[in-house]
Amino acid sequence: MALLELQQLSHAYGGHLVVDGLSLDLAPGTIGCLLGPSGCGKTTVLRCIAGFERPDAGTIRVGEEVVSAMSTHVPPERRRIGMVFQNYSLFPHLSVAANIAFGLQALPSAERKARVHALLELVGLPSQAGRYPHELSGGQQQRVALARALGPRPRLLLLDEPFSSLDVDLRERLAAEVGAILRAEGTTAVMVTHDQHEAFAMADQVGVMHGGRIQQWDTPYNLYHRPANRFVADFIGQGAFVPGQVLAGGAIAIELGALRNAAAGSAPAWQPGDAVTVLLRPDDVVHDDASPLTAEVVAKAFRGAEFLYTLKLGSGQEVLSLVPSHHDHAPGERIGIRLDVDHVVAFPA
Ligand SMILES: Nc1ncnc2c1ncn2[C@@H]1O[C@H](COP(=O)(O)OP(=O)(O)OP(=O)(O)O)[C@@H](O)[C@H]1O
C-alpha cells in the first residue's frame, strides 16, 4: 500500500484554481519530488499534505489514516509529518544538539542523548554538537534542520525548496547526500523544487507540475528520455523540436535522416504521412568528421568536458549537439554530424 496517497486534490485561492484534481501515490521508503515552474502550485500541495491548508476537494491519506477529506481535517501537529524549509528555521539561541533534541522531549534523557548522537552521525556532523547555528555554513545548517525533522521519526518528511538558499555548486551535492541519508533511515519524503538537477540528484520519482496538475509522474530517466507530452519534453533537459513525417513501416523522416523504433511511451498509433514534431536532445546529434552530413556552428557554450553547440541545418532549423571539448570549432564553421537517437520522442505536429 502507498504510504502517501492524494486523490483528486483541488485548491483555489480567492476563486483562482491552483491545484486542479491532482492525484499521486508514494510507496513507503520512496523519495518523491514535485518539480515545476514558479507558481505552478507545488508548495500549495505540500501545505495541504502538512495540514497548513485545507483543500477544497479531494482526499489525503498518510499510512492508514485519512488526514484530509471533505469532513476531515487532522491538524498539522497530529499528522506526524516532519518538515524542512528553505530557510533552515533553526533556533538561533540553541546549540546544534539542543536544536535536534527539541522535538525529542518525550524521550527519557539517556535515549534522547543517544538519538541526538545517532542523528548527528547520520548527517555527518558529530563534531558540531556544541556549536550554534550562526557558526555553521548554510549546508551544515540544512543538515541540522534535517536531523531535527527526522528526530521524532515522522512517518513522512516534507522538504520545501530545501537547497534554494545554497550555492548552485553545493545544491546538487547536498541533494544527493540528503537522498542517501533519507534512504539510510528508510524515510518516505516529498520534496518541492523548481530545480531539475536537485530533483534528479535526490528523488526516485518526480512529478512535473503544470497548471495545477502532474503532467508526468515518473523516474528522472523516463522524464528525460520518454517525456509524456510537449510540456515535459520542453521543461526537462534541453533539446530542439524539429518537424518530421511518418513513413510507411513507422520510421520518422526528419531533415537529418530516418529515425527507426519510433516507439516513445507517448507515441500514439501514427499513420504514414502524419506530420509530427520530434524532440532531438543534445546527445542525439553527434559530431563526426567522417559524416557527409554537415551543419553550421551558430553558437557554443563551454561546459568543461563538453561544448554545447547550437548548429544550423540546411533548412535553417537549429539543433543542439553535445561534443567533447577537444573538438573546438568556431561559429561560422561547418562540422560533420550524424544522428544517434536511442529513444525517439515524437508528438503530433
Ligand atoms: N495564501 C495565498 N493566497 C493567495 N494566493 C496564493 C497563496 N499562496 C499561493 N498563492 C498563489 O497560488 C499560486 C501557486 O502558488 P504556490 O506557492 O503553490 O506555487 P509554487 O509552484 O510553489 O511556486 P514557487 O516555486 O514560486 O513557490 C501562485 O499564483 C500564488 O501566487
Automatic annotation (TrEMBL):
<keyword id="KW-0547">Nucleotide-binding</keyword>
<keyword id="KW-0410">Iron transport</keyword>
<protein>
    <submittedName>
        <fullName>ABC transporter ATP-binding protein</fullName>
    </submittedName>
</protein>
<dbReference type="GO" id="GO:0016887">
    <property type="term" value="F:ATP hydrolysis activity"/>
</dbReference>
<dbReference type="InterPro" id="IPR003593">
    <property type="entry name" value="AAA+_ATPase"/>
</dbReference>
<dbReference type="InterPro" id="IPR015853">
    <property type="entry name" value="ABC_transpr_FbpC"/>
</dbReference>
<dbReference type="InterPro" id="IPR017871">
    <property type="entry name" value="ABC_transporter-like_CS"/>
</dbReference>
<dbReference type="InterPro" id="IPR013611">
    <property type="entry name" value="Transp-assoc_OB_typ2"/>
</dbReference>
<keyword id="KW-1003">Cell membrane</keyword>
<keyword id="KW-0406">Ion transport</keyword>
<dbReference type="Pfam" id="PF08402">
    <property type="entry name" value="TOBE_2"/>
</dbReference>
<dbReference type="InterPro" id="IPR008995">
    <property type="entry name" value="Mo/tungstate-bd_C_term_dom"/>
</dbReference>
<dbReference type="InterPro" id="IPR027417">
    <property type="entry name" value="P-loop_NTPase"/>
</dbReference>
<dbReference type="GO" id="GO:0043190">
    <property type="term" value="C:ATP-binding cassette (ABC) transporter complex"/>
</dbReference>
<dbReference type="Pfam" id="PF00005">
    <property type="entry name" value="ABC_tran"/>
</dbReference>
<dbReference type="InterPro" id="IPR050093">
    <property type="entry name" value="ABC_SmlMolc_Importer"/>
</dbReference>
<keyword id="KW-0408">Iron</keyword>
<keyword id="KW-0813">Transport</keyword>
<feature type="domain" description="ABC transporter">
    <location>
        <begin position="4"/>
        <end position="236"/>
    </location>
</feature>
<dbReference type="GO" id="GO:0015408">
    <property type="term" value="F:ABC-type ferric iron transporter activity"/>
</dbReference>
<keyword id="KW-0067">ATP-binding</keyword>
<dbReference type="GO" id="GO:0015697">
    <property type="term" value="P:quaternary ammonium group transport"/>
</dbReference>
<dbReference type="GO" id="GO:0005524">
    <property type="term" value="F:ATP binding"/>
</dbReference>
<keyword id="KW-0472">Membrane</keyword>
<dbReference type="InterPro" id="IPR003439">
    <property type="entry name" value="ABC_transporter-like_ATP-bd"/>
</dbReference>
